[in-house]
User: Fold these one by one.
Assistant:
Number 1:
Amino acid sequence: MTPHHFLYLATILFGIGLLGLTIRKNLFVIYLSIELMLSSVNLILATFSRANNSQDGSIMALLMIAVIASEASIFLAIIVYLYKSTKTIDTETFTNLRNEESI
Amino acid sequence: MLESIIFSILALFLVIGAISMISFKQSVYSAISFLLVMIAMAGMFALLHQSFLFLAQILVSVGAVVTLSLMIITSINIKRDNLPKHRVSPKSIFLSSILILPIILVIFKAISSLDIKFVEVDSSFGTIQSISTTLFSNWVLPFEIVSILLLSALIGSIIISKRRLNL
């Protein structure tokens, strides 16, 4: 087993997350896709840390987990706010910045 | 040999969980698939001798992030009518794949040209003791910055959720 297997797997996961981010219109799925992409980067960091026998990659992955947690809290607060105000989680609804008269 | 089998099983779980996460219509099923992905990711960390990272992944990602997401999904109680109406069209999947595939192929090419392999590590690699020694000697400043980030995320989420609705 080589580090390449882990890196290929992390790249495939990143691709799936990017696909979910672009094709879905459900806010929750978009949020989970972003989390998936961040976690796949975590896997890459851990793999390089193990391959180079250095702890620095593990520390970076550990700090990334904190970033993921703070991203989750902010994103979920935004989702709750948007759902309370518009009663939907369809991204097609949120077009305030697209309206030309609001510029 | 055993490691390869465990890797294959975990990789299968990761890919199946990720694909089902982006294909379910109901958000709850997506969140449960994401739970599967996070647990399999923790297994990957264990396979890489990162015992503390495995612990942190289970505690934070599985215990806090996924649980919080499930709690929010069930508490705002989205009706079926409020979900996005139209299904994902094959055309959008095709166009997105055209966008994404070149990026993935370039990364694959870069990975295949890498010349790295796993070296033997001593038994203290990835344990809480060696991680904390590195963290509190070379990585003190990033650690403090992350603590400020967590504090600002706390304040920001409180302010967003207490704001008056005026859309």
Note: Residues 3-90 of chain A form a domain with the Helix Hairpins fold (CATH 1.10.287.3510).
Number 2:
Amino acid sequence: MNKILICLKRVVDYNVRIRVKPDGDGVVTDGVKMSINPFDEIALEEALRIREAGNAEEIVAVTIGSQDCQQQLRTGLAMGADRAILVESDTEIDPLAAARALHALVEKESPDLVILGKQAIDDDCNQTGQMLAAIWGRPQATFASKLELAGTTAKVTREVDAGLETIEVDLPAVVTSDLRLNEPRYVKLPDIMKAKKKPLENIAVSELLGDTEPQLNAVGWAPPAQRAKGILVDDVDGLIAALREKDLVT
Amino acid sequence: MSKVLIIAELNGSALNPSTAKCVACAQAVSPDSIDIAVFSHQCADAAATAAGITGVSRVLCIESEANRHPLAAVLAPQAAELAADYDYVFGPSTTFGKDVMPRIAALLGVGQVSDIMSVASPRSFARPVYAGNAVLTVEVPEGKTIVATVRTASWKDAPTGGSASVENASVTAEIPAHTRFVELASEASERPDLQTAKKVISGGRGVGSSENFDLIYQLATKLGAGVGASRAAVDAGYVANDMQVGQTGKIIAPELYIAFGISGAIQHLTGIKDAGTIVAVNKDPEAPIFEIADIGLVGDLFEVLPELEQKL
């Protein structure tokens, strides 16, 4: 195939312990480590493997967000993407607006395959890929753990609640990656240097979207309910006694 | 007048219990009516179960060969057509609902509220973000259809005892041919379903191998429990992917959850926070799982498991 489009989101690193701000206006992000959403890294890795197998010519990495997102795009370029596009927006973009903006880019770029992470680990929405596929009128293969290309179709194995489902889709299509699709490579220093010379284009989100009226308004943030402090037992007999006390075993 | 449409989830031709949880959530928005749409090649069984859920007004059967398998690209245009008459469209936050609901929302030109934990008002909802480390309340502006997935672990099944009418519904939406079902590989199991089991026994990396998982299965059999696993155990190949519990696996709320050899990564803990009682057995006293466990036992699971099975 000719082109694969990959969507990357800048998120708080998965190792950071999240704290809600005291005023309930969001979570603490000042001075916090930011990374590529782990599922999106898997999406990019899959595209790289497709290209390395001789099945794709070009990989374009896209993100939507502030200028700070250039950092994550440069990481994507260092991993091996050929060029990058930053759709610049200083305000939060919800999944529907993101899907609409991505669709506008898809119209311009005409990729044969779009791969995104199945969800971003910040808002945990799990929507953008499905919405892009709907607007584009193309197939979606979500939660992919295996992707096999065969000419103008792709066979995708999906992780579903009942086990592993395989579907066949015509290309172009949207695929969203699950954890076990692959293990992303580490970036090496020379690749970081090379990535600085790769093209990175800026497009204002207003060029792609007429209306960015929010679909949802945030009312407030709160820390989750805490569980009461538990007890430690010394041995199996103590455990059984504690379970019997709660009437959980006979 | 506010009307809710629920997209039923089916296992084969039977209704998945997640649908009754969607009804419970739908009742919390105090609607005038709740309808359930059943898409299948054979609607009768699932429709009959759906009609028996208290609070349901009508069950709509959309029966066609195209609806034999739950393909989002096939179901979404049909569901979006039906949705035109409704104020709310709900589905479960299972892999089925997560796949199809955003596609329906986008076809309707609206956003989606993912994973409703609770209803604050008819237009505002609490949902977990950052792997459940924060709870965000969102409000849907007036005039928009509210499309949402319901976090099944947060809701009890709406009780049975209803007697809704069952009707056939026809849709004119064009069914795409670009997406085709190939197969579903599912390990047949006599065990209780992980997402609805009252008791769940789980193993992590500490279990060490798929052979050692037999110890977990034996205890589960004795207790009539479902079996789960941490991501580490699934990644290591000890058990199948459909047993993963956590942020990206299954979110469960059994009455009793016993974790063996699971250290308790934040992504795993988010999948079990709603369990009634959490028991942790781990040889590392510093394991984070002890921070949320109701009952903790520091010890070697290879000694604890056989002894526990024998003494219970």
Note: Residues 3-225 of chain A form a domain with the Rossmann fold fold (CATH 3.40.50.620).
